[in-house]
Amino acid sequence: MIRISSQFDSGAIEVLDCTDPSDIRLNLRADNAADFRQWFHFRLQGARGQACTLSFDNAGESAYPGGWDGYRVVASYDRRNWFRLQAGQFDGRRYVFRLTPEYDSVYFAYFEPFPWERHLDLLGSADASPVATVSDLGATPDGRDLNLITIGRAAPGKRKVWLIARQHPGETMAEFFIEGLLERLYDTSDPVSRRLLEQACFHVVPNMNPDGSVRGNLRTNARGINLNRAWLEPDMTDSPEIALVQAQMLALGVDVFLDIHGDETLPYVFIDGNGMVPGFSDAQRQQEQAFCTALRAASPDFQTTEGYSPDQFTDELLTLASKWVFHRFGCLSLTLEMPFKDNANLPDGLFGWSAARSKRFGAASLQALLAVLDGD
């Protein structure tokens, strides 16, 4: 007997009919308090050796319908090793994919999940590092901890580098990026890390949206708020995550800021800067370009040709994290995007864009940060 379940960390799916393995019909489930749907994470049991055809019947009504073109579902038998299926078919309404499971149980997800337990392990690694500390900023609407990792020691003349990830909880590649960056930054034998910690103190929020992550949301917190549209006027009732982080930024200061994300549609790694923000100077443009040049040298996965149009966020500018930080502090402040699909410039037929590549890219980004700090 076939069974589909999603009552676990970050699980999300609606089952319409799973009686026939050749025609398993599903719906993408909306965020708990908002009408965003694209993330899925579920378990299929009892179909070993059977040719299964699965469809998301409402894919055309998802937040980013263009994200299904060329998309390949991520699957795992043991929740540790994830692989990509063959690209499914999207007709503008339904997305259909196929698999003949090799085992009795198989998990499917929109991207490799970053479980809450792994997040807690990430905090534990920080506590165990001689160069890092973990502090509690406050509680989320569901009562979960919002934690800040500080690497290095603050001192006069040292730069204050901030990184945040997973404002949009379904963008799990963002926390894998942070994991890779932190692992390298903790390595006191790495000359890049040693040099960075001589020049800067790092403040990192690895998961800005714990509630949405555990609930299996795509873009919002437990209150239905898109946190990356809440930076202009956050409040402690609906968007405490932003209010708490903003308060700490204002108390400590910001010299460099990176907001890490994933993009459902564009198959590239790219940066979105502040050229559209009033008051953006030539010197600030040169600083952004210097960072992008250094990041391209540090990782061939990064490119500067494809990205968002300059007017994409015109009506929302200061509600976005990187734009608000730039406007408030006048510093290098960027949104970094990675793909849910694959990097079209360096495609990987087996894994596509993956957790492992996200981690490596996070580690490589330290080289670009060092180049910028050395150049100032």
Q: Can you walk me through this structure?
A:
This protein is an alpha+beta fold. The protein folds into two domains: 3-109, Immunoglobulin-like (Sandwich), CATH 2.60.40.3120; 116-375, Zn peptidases (Aminopeptidase), CATH 3.40.630.10. Helix content is 27%, strand content 23%. The protein has eight helices and 17 strands. A seven-stranded mixed sheet has the order 11-12-14-13-15-17-16, sandwiched between helices. A five-stranded antiparallel sheet has the order 1-4-10-6-7, with no helix packed on it. A five-stranded mixed sheet has the order 2-3-5-9-8, with no helix packed on it. A hairpin with a 6-residue loop joins β2 (14-17) and β3. The model has no long low-confidence stretch (mean pLDDT 97).
Quickly list its features.
376 residues; alpha+beta; Immunoglobulin-like; Aminopeptidase; seven-stranded mixed sheet; five-stranded antiparallel sheet; 23% strand
Low-confidence stretches: none
Per CATH, the superfamily of the largest domain is: Zn peptidases
Beta content comes to 15-25%
**How many structural domains in the coordinates?**
2
The CATH topology of the largest domain is given as Aminopeptidase
CATH class of the largest domain: Alpha Beta
Secondary-structure blueprint of this entry?
Blueprint: E1 3-5, E2 14-17, E3 24-27, E4 41-45, E5 52-56, E6 74-76, E7 82-84, E8 89-90, E9 95-99, E10 105-109, H1 116-128, E11 132-139, E12 145-151, E13 159-165, H2 173-185, H3 191-199, E14 200-205, H4 210-215, H5 240-252, E15 256-263, E16 270-272, H6 282-298, H7 321-329, E17 332-339, H8 355-375
Parallel strand pairs: 3-5, 13-14, 13-15, 15-17
Antiparallel strand pairs: 1-4, 2-3, 4-10, 5-9, 6-7, 6-10, 8-9, 11-12, 12-14, 16-17
Helix pairs in contact: 2-8, 3-8, 6-8
